[in-house]
Design goal:
560 residues; alpha+beta; Formiminotransferase-cyclodeaminase, Chain B, domain 1; Alpha-Beta Plaits; Four Helix Bundle (Hemerythrin (Met), subunit A); four-stranded antiparallel beta sheet; 17 helices; 52% helix; globular
Amino acid sequence: MKQLIECVPNFSEGRDMSIIKQITDEIESVEGVKLLDVDPGKATNRTVVTFVGEPAAAIDAAFLGMKKAAELIDMSKHTGEHPRQGATDVCPLIPIGNITMEETAEWAHRLGARVGRELDFPVFMYEAAATRPERQNLATIRAGEYEALPEKLKRADFKPDYGAAKFNPQSGATVIGARDFLIAYNVNLNTTSVRRANSVAFDIREQGRVKREGNPITGKIMRDENGEALRTPGSCKSVKGIGWFIEEYGVAQVSMNLTNISVTPLHIGFEECRKSAERRGMRVTGSEIVGLVPLKVMLEAGRYFLKKQNRSTGVSEAELIKIAVKSMGLDDLTPFEPRKKIIEYLLEDNLSSPLIKMSLSDFADETASESPAPGGGSVAAYLGALGVSLATMVANLSAHKRGWDDRWEEFSDWANKGQKIKDALVKLVDEDTNSFNAIMAAFRLPKGTTEEKSTRSQAIQDATKYAIETPLKTMEVALESFEIIKAMADVGNPNSVTDAGVGALCARAAVHGAFLNVKINCGDFKDKKYVKDVLAKATKMTKEADKLEKEVMKMVHSKM
């Protein structure tokens, strides 16, 4: 598997899109790099750019973007709401595929060394790439911002990790590092007061607020024996936050960095802001995600808010995302487009799953065309997906049935199981066609030399095994769905019992249909013991499907 790094450089320009376009053009000029997101902010005068690639390509792209930013952005004229100290203010590298944090930190140092050597401005390393403990925190390095650089660079303790310790008026300094996925998140308040927004930020951020004697605002700061200010910690660990006013929208915001979403998820950050604001006589009106967000964050948020409503969480990804967006007001200031904001969706290869992206009519047309794929295997998997979807529907209807309020969690659990099986079967729709294509590709390999013949023969056998195991997986997963189908026929909403019955018919057809593909592909496989074992296993599954379908249909007819 390829190693993948995500790079999220923050450029100190958010108003002149021609400058940003020149920078992103440089980034996109590197082969193997995919630009995912460009998120400019007028008030902050800052643009967050997100792209991914293999490590060498990613740092090449980052270097070219930083070089162009140094040419086009003049920090001596820069103003904006966000803390900053350089044309490329910060450039974190994030491990997202088959690469460790330690390896990512090594690549960050390669980038830092190149920038310091070739671009002639100071470079500081932070987070996992920090060279000393006090530089792990970006805020510590950036204290005093651009304006403080001339004096700070004269200090021995502020010597840059790379580049000369001299002030570059145009480019300032940059910070490069390696870190976990961070979510930049702003919560909107119904106030224009920065002081009140800060009070909410202090309530929730891990650092909290300094302790004071007497008056909590004007009183003398309390200190420990070492002279360090004492603090009252905030309610959310792994959260940094400040309050600011965004003139573009006419509102104050609590601006947060969620540095560990396993410790404080997005929805908890939102909820803690909401609680603090309400205690202080304010109201949260919405929020915004700056840059990209992992899919799991949105799904967790959707489930959290559904649970608060005592509603089933066993709904589709799309529905969970919709609930998350509406609950946190993520479309308050600008539309929230999942396909543009969720990193997994942006990373999807549109060609890798062409069938499941089709409409019903397009899928039927493609199946009916002269092309041999999609065929029976894909249709069997889709039948299975439809069958378990019907059972999942019954579970969700049961969770919301009047008079069954105390059972919503029971049916929510069933619905969640159904969603997982449905998703697995939907993926197998494309997987079966992919296995057929793999066989065709193997047969097209050259067969002139002895070595070529051997390579081709092995490729055909490998592809054939893939084509056996894919429908076998469809059989296994479709058979699993009977547990939910049978339960919904038995204890689900009696008004929907026939839906469970249709689900059972679909599941049985999926098992038998996939079995046909298993059998025909076994005929071309040379390992006869493997074939014998597979056919025995598959035959057993068809008999089990027949038995379960009869049990379900008996229940259905008894309740009609």
